[in-house]
Structure formats: structure tokens, C-alpha cells
Give the backbone structure.
Amino acid sequence: MIHPERITLLNRQSPRKGRWVLYWMQASQRATGNHALEFAVREANGMGLPVVVFFGLTPDFPEANLRHCRFLLEGLREVRNDLDKRGIALVIRAVSPEKGALELCRDAALAVTDRGYLRIQKAWREAVAREAPCPLIRVESDVIVPVESASPKEEFSAATLRPKIRTRLGDFLHPLEETPVKRDSLGLRLPGLSLNDPEAILRDLPVDRGVPPVDSFRGGSGEARKFLKRFLAHALDRYDKDRNVPGSDAVSNLSPYLHFGHISPLEIVLAVRASRRGNPAAKESFLEELIVRRELALNFVHYNPAYDAYKGAVPAWAQRTLEEHGRDRREYAYSFRDLEEACTHDPYWNAAQREMVRTGKMHGYMRMYWGKKILEWSASPAEAFRTALALNNRWELDGRDPNGFAGVAWCFGKHDRPWGERPIFGKVRYMNAAGLKRKFDMRPYLDRFGSDV
């Protein structure tokens, strides 16, 4: 069963005859554990029609670059192979997603899409809903509790959202069954890009080529499951104690795969719950991050249209206190280039920046420290916000994501409370190098990322 609260009719078009049921796959880039895909298959079976899956490959997604696109194409190649086994055609076209979806809607009896929460993702779906000649149904597959089901408004913090989510978990924590496909669509021969040579596709994409791909993470559901399996076997049992330790391997490394929809959060939750490893506290700590904290970020970008702007994202109390200390003396000040090239006096901050540039990901605790220091070293809080967001979105594989927008805003007081007042930060939470050294042995982290290679 797919919970009805995951399903939303986006327009009022009447049912009609067509050649296929279209699944417009844009956010949930996977062939398994995908509620939207399974809904499309079930509807198609009921109509006696095949399913066609479409993905729009656009270079116009804000801040997309070569690193992101390589990872995405690696995942799509696996999606194609998995769909082939089910007799479902995948059509990929180098076109703005809403335009490609509308082209395939012309011959569709019904169109199904997944969900995105960012401004551009919403705009794409709204455009198709307005212009499609067939019904368009959205099926949420990338959260545990759909955002509106959890709360009708932007939440102040995890403390206010947590009880609302917990009361609904039992409704949504059910495995998704795969439905056999009755009508094959592989013989339709619809034109689209071939994934046999992803490098050729990348060469033709007009994206930022200044951010190279990385070998640390390869895209795809299979790779995501390898990280999940490794995490369950070697890190889950100490996650509650070691997850914040820089240089430790007590993290899942699943955030890039969640960002691109290569793995379902539901699959992860069910695997963690079923694991024989990991004490209850460790499991609870991990599920707090995966469910409550992640879905708090989705709540933020869904209900706050200015999630990527300092004035809109940072709470009023934090803006006031930061402005009151706007003229405080900065002992250090760095340009965007200094920061991007890890040229500061702080070896821990430099190591964090190098980790992000080299691997496409930064340890979660260091990302908090990293953002706080940008605030401390910038001429103004607004400039610091823009810098942190730009660096995060450019170099992180999981950048340009609700978690990234919420994480940067957190460094400026979002989802937090006032603390003791101090220079520059005012009442916004402060972090420093002495705290890192007091809490952790930083040598392993510096050994890995503390110098140029």
C-alpha cells in the first residue's frame, strides 16, 4: 500500500486515452524503493498500458557543475539497467525537465511525478500541471513523513517538529512492494540520450567545469547500498558516541545518495531498525538525524520561500544580535578566494575545506565549525551567508539540497536558540579551535586533510 497522504493530484485534467503512463522521474532517481514509480506501474497495469520513465538532463539547475553531473549520470545508468530488467523504458533528454515532460504527456493517459522542495523543482511541476493535457499526480518518495502531514507551518526547531513526526511514524514506516509490470515499453523506441558513453554526454553539457569529479563517491543505488551495508556492519554500534568525531568513520556517507534520490530514506530506516548491530541509543541517534533533522530541513525550504537569502533564512533574533555586533573588530578577514583555496591561519578550517574540495563531502561536525568561522572572518553576516552557501553548493555532492540550506542557516542561528553574548557573534552560538582540541583528538583528521597534495 502507498499511503494516500503521499499522493497529490496537481491538476484537474480528466482521465483520457493514451499510449502510456508517464513517470517523470526527477528527484527520486532510482528504480527500487520508489513510491512514485510503483504508483505509476500500478496505474498502468490497471489501464493495460506500459510505463515510460522520463528524466530531463538540464545544465540550468542552479550551481550545477561537472562534479554533480558525473555523479548524477552514474546513477542514471544504473536506473536504466534496473528498469530494463522490469521492461520499462527510460527516456533521457537534454532539455529543461518541464519541457521534456510536457512532450511525453501528449501521448500519456496519465502522468506521475516525484517531489522536489526547492524553488526550481516546484516551478517545474507547477508548469507541467498547468499545461499537461492529462492528469498529473505527485507521489512523495523521499521522506518518511510528508512535510504537510508532519506540520502545516515552518517549525522553529527540531524540538517543535520531533513530536509531530513521531506521532505519524507508524503510518509511514511500511515496506514498499515492487509490482510486476504487465506491459513492456522497451519496444517503443522513443528518442533520447544513450548512457553507454556518459563521458560524451558530459563533454556536451555546458556546465561549470572548474569543479572536477571525485573518486571518493560514485553515483547509483548499488553504491549507496554498499555504504549502508558498511555503516550497519562497522559504524552503527558506535554512532551515538563517535559520529561527531572528525576523522572517525562512524558516519554513513549517505547524504550524496539521498540528495540525488539514489536511495530511499525508508529503505535506510527499515534496515537500521532491523539490524542486529547497534544499541538502541545508537539507532535512535542515527534516526534522529535521518528523520527529524533531515525533515526539519525539508520543512524549512518548503514553508520559507527565502530559504537561500540571509534576510529570509536567518531568524529575526539572530539578525538583530549580529547587526548589533556588525562593527566588532575581526582579528582575521579572508576573501572568497582565500577561503575556497583553504588559505587561512586555521589548520582545522583549512582541513575541512580541503576535505570538501577533494572528496565532495565534509564531516558533519566540521561543517558546523567551518560555517561558524566564515561568519567570524567575513565583513558582514550577509556576506558570510552568501560565501558559505556558495562554497557548500559548489563543492559538496550533497550541496544545493534542503539539508545544505538549513545547515548553512543553522550557523547563523536558524533552528537554534540564543546563547551567551560575545563579540561578532552576539547571541548566536560560537565555536572555536580550542573547543575542537578539547573535545577531540584532531590529529587523524589533520593527517588526512591538513596539507595540500
The first strand starts at residue 7 and ends at 9. Residues 1-141 form a domain with the Rossmann fold fold (CATH 3.40.50.620).
